[in-house]
């Protein structure tokens, strides 16, 4: 879906942003799984994250899914610190991107 699609369908943008919040919560769960060294928690949290994702750009989707797959594999191999580091970076980037979208949306709403 393109940016124009979301601009023309604010309800869809709201739905997508809610799903992004779900992904953030699931990334937190996966990080807790890394800290407690629980592969099942990491795996389940990241698999649910993958199902929540609806990324418009195939390039971005491929990179995000690649990171999630990497983290599942790392935790499966007992390399929880490596998985946690990648997840923390992804969560930080994801949080910044969603905050930017919300700021832009609020600015646009103030112009109308």
Word description of this protein:
- With 112 residues, the chain is mainly α.
- It has a single domain (3-105), classed as IL-4 antagonist (De novo design) like domain (Four Helix Bundle (Hemerythrin (Met), subunit A), Up-down Bundle), CATH 1.20.120.
- It has five helices and no strands.
- It has helices at 3-8, 10-35, 39-52, 58-76, 80-111.
- It is elongated, with a radius of gyration of 15 Å.
| Percentage of residues in DSSP E strands | under 5%
Per DSSP E runs of 2 or more residues, the count of β-strands stands at: 0
Overall mean pLDDT: 87
Radius of gyration: 15 Å
CATH class bucket: Mainly Alpha
The assigned CATH architecture is Up-down Bundle
Summing up helix and strand content along with how strands pair, one would put the structural category as mainly alpha
Report the helical percentage: over 70%
What's the total helix number? 5
* Shape estimate: elongated
Q: What series of H and E elements makes up the topology?
A: HHHHH
- The count of domains is 1
Distance between the termini: 24 Å
Organism: Eiseniibacteriota bacterium
Protein name: Flagellar protein FliS
Keywords summarizing the entry:
single chain, 112 residues, mainly alpha, Four Helix Bundle (Hemerythrin (Met), subunit A), 5 helices, 87% helix, 0% strand, elongated, Flagellar protein FliS
